[in-house]
Design a protein that fits this description.
This protein is an alpha+beta fold. Helix content is about 35%, strand content about 40%. It is built from five helices and seven strands; from the N terminus they run ααββββαββααβ. The longest helix is centred in the last third of the chain and has 15 residues, at about 100-110.
């Protein structure tokens, strides 16, 4: 077995890793073809897809309107032997319907503030959600690694 196969997570392991994190690096494509890379809080929806929300006029939104392809990186670890990550390629679907945007916002707020009751999160989500849209990422390819398997 080659090293790449040895360190790859199973699908369930990659899903659990994504469920345990709350920030990702999101890459979209600028008009000139260069990458636009930002850190985003995210959550998973009921189908295990990455969801995030942002302002309708944000650069990432404009980029995704032109080209819905995204790359999402979630990683952890400081030393080489601790590195774990999931690199997810996909297409981001824009969500404008207010109820779905609110659902995405509430999921993200829960991920950002574990243990805080929805009743405390909802006023913030409702107010902030008036200016935001959501995105759902449909995966096209997943690459993962867990360097702890090398020891």
């Amino acid at each position: 077995m080659n090293q790449r196969a040895r360190i790859a997570m199973s699908g369930d392991e990659a899903d659990a890793f994504l469920a345990s994190a709350r920030k990702l690096q999101l890459a979209t494509i600028n008009p000139d073809g260069t990458p636009h890379l930002v850190t985003m809080f995210y959550a998973l929806d009921e189908r295990g897809r990455i969801v995030f929300w942002t302002y309708a006029k944000a650069q990432k939104t404009r980029n995704l309107e032109r080209d819905p392809r995204v790359t999402c990186l979630v990683e952890t670890g400081e030393d080489y032997g601790e590195l774990r990550g999931v690199l997810l390629y996909g297409k981001a679907e824009r969500v404008d319907e207010p109820g779905r945007v609110l659902d995405i916002g509430l999921r993200v707020a829960r991920a950002m503030t574990p243990g805080v009751a929805d009743e405390h999160l909802l006023p913030y989500v409702e107010q902030t959600g008036r200016k935001r849209i959501g995105f759902v990422v449909e995966r096209t390819k997943v690459v993962s690694w867990d360097h702890r398997r090398l020891t």
